[in-house]
UniProtKB/TrEMBL annotation:
Gene3D superfamilies: NAD(P)-binding Rossmann-like Domain. It comes from Altericroceibacterium indicum. PANTHER family: DEHYDROGENASE_REDUCTASE SDR FAMILY PROTEIN 7-LIKE (PTHR43391:SF14), RETINOL DEHYDROGENASE-RELATED (PTHR43391). This is SDR family NAD(P)-dependent oxidoreductase. GO terms for molecular function: oxidoreductase activity. Residues 214-223 have a biased composition (Pro residues). The keyword Transmembrane does not apply.
Amino acid sequence: MKDVKGKTAFITGGASGMGLGMAKAFAEAGMKVVIADIRQEALDEAMEEFSHTNFAIFPVKLDVTDRNGWLQAVETAEEQFGNIHLLALNAGVGIVGPMSEATYKDWDFNIQVNIYGVVNGLVTLLPRMKAHGETCHIVATSSTGGFSAVGSAGLYCTAKFAVAGMMESLATELQGSNIGVSCFFPGPVSTNLGQSTGATRPDHLKNDSVAPSPDAPKGPPPFDTSVFMSKEEVGKRVLRGIERGDLFIMTHPEFTDGIKARNEALLRAQPVEPRNEERAKVVAMFGTLLYNPIYDKQELVDGPTLN
């Protein structure tokens, strides 16, 4: 999607954090931007920030787990700006803690927002994008936890691995169409994910309060968040990835060794024995299981020159 000027973007979780960073970058590039968020106060604050600009920004309140709400939000956005060309599925929650202590409510909240929040956006907007036929792009926010497991964030990693698989499959399906697809894997970014997770958790999915055991392990020590990437830089990197047509949009080179380690472990786990060519022919009939050309299209990303 090389030419974004004049096109319309729809961003979930768009009123704060990375979503707001994307909104700024997209608007600066000349896009009309719909910021969708579950929190009215966040929408109000974002619109106040944009009130000092000439950007075309439109707020809609949306709970990404609400399928009827999705339809209403998209119809409202289309009435305001016309066809939607860029869908940024960015809304998410950060459920942390040992998997051995997770409750059904923890799992349900995590999956409803982090997985079904993406699914609902695809089901609502993908047919519309295909129908109007104009150049489009879909980007979904996974995480570095979507390719590197974290023991204290198993629920979160489960959802983010799922988003990555979803986007890679969608990119495979939409090859040669009017719709490009990217999966975004951000590392540490200055956001309020922890606060927004608690503020947006519905009452019926909240756990009963239990006093922590004095023997419970303590959390990590305080760390310097000043080294985290700003939401504005994140937005510019996402825009660059969309314009380049990248399958994978990464932000932090610090994770290179972890990516290599996982990929090398997968290769070492492959049996060292001759291929069964007859079996391979049968498997090849199922499409891209043996070899997927979408990975060949990912080009090297040099250090950014971001304005």
